[in-house]
Amino acid sequence: MAGGRPVRPSRSTRVSYRDLYEGALVIDRRSFLVGTGSIVAACVAASVRSAQPAANTAGDLGARLHALFDTFMDERLSQNPEQLTSLGLDKDKYAWARSQLTPASLERLHEIKQQNAAQLERLRTVPRAALAGRDLADYDTVEYQLQTIAQTAPFDFGDVRGYVVPYVVSQLTGAYQSIPTFLDREHRIATPDDAEAYLARLRGFAVVLDQETERVRHDAALKVTPPDFLIERTLAQMQRLRSSPAALDSRDLDRKARARARPAR
């Protein structure tokens, strides 16, 4: 036991990497001597002498890991304008995102998978065996997500949106149901520039719909289509969208911009 917690032995010592990382190595001598004997005790004594350098190494490795995570997140956000807007980050270096929508082309899917493979390769340059505690949990979480997406590489259908979906368009997926909700709830209009960005995204909506239509045809040629009951629900939702009156005309858009720009009382 170390620090009141069970410690997993390594190949040559019973000192845990977590204790080294925290720089607080505590050994229960009675339990230790009963369980191991004098030879292993000598090994632990050597480990105690090197605990501080190891703590520094573990800290450096953790910092390197999280710097890599920051890079991964920047790469993902740079290719997802809607997420940048939802997080309130579509400004400064990400200001370009405010008038953009994420492409839905097949080429875009290939780029996502290539980026995912590259990120998984870079992650595995970090020695997992040298991690412990939260760093190890973070590593395993990110690796699991990247590995899950990597397993879809042989399959040229479906979509990857931070998670894997089998159908580009269904009752739960597709720009037809996500973009109108996003524009209404997430795209804030407080200035004339915001209104222009809204209109640019509205025009981009048509492009994304065309791209998804091509993807549906592509997947259908591979005999990948949703089951009939999902198609029926999807068509019903599309019909409701098309039969609804336009949510905004130019006058409504101007009123919405002025209302949101008005200071809260």
Please, could you describe this protein's structure?
This protein has helices at 17-22, 29-36, 38-49, 51-77, 81-86, 106-123, 133-150, 175-185, 192-221, 228-243, 250-261; strands at 159-160, 164-165. Strands 1-2 form a two-stranded antiparallel sheet. The protein is 62% helix and 2% strand. The chain has eleven helices and two strands, in the order αααααααββαααα. Among the domains are: 1-49, no CATH class; 168-265. A hairpin with a 3-residue loop joins strand 1 and strand 2 (164-165). By secondary structure, the protein is an all-alpha fold. Residues 1-55 have low confidence and may be disordered.
**Gyration radius from CA atoms, angstroms:** 26 Å
Q: Helix segment count?
A: 11
The coarse overall form would be globular
How many distinct beta strands? 2
* Average of the residue pLDDT scores: 79
Order of helices and strands: HHHHHHHEEHHHH
Question: What amount of the residues lies in strands?
Answer: under 5%
Contiguous runs where pLDDT drops below 50 for at least 5 residues: 1-55
Element layout with pairings:
Blueprint: H1 17-22, H2 29-36, H3 38-49, H4 51-77, H5 81-86, H6 106-123, H7 133-150, E1 159-160, E2 164-165, H8 175-185, H9 192-221, H10 228-243, H11 250-261
Antiparallel strand pairs: 1-2
Helix pairs in contact: 6-7, 8-9
A few lines on this structure:
With 265 residues, the chain is mainly alpha-helical. The protein is built from 11 helices and 2 strands.
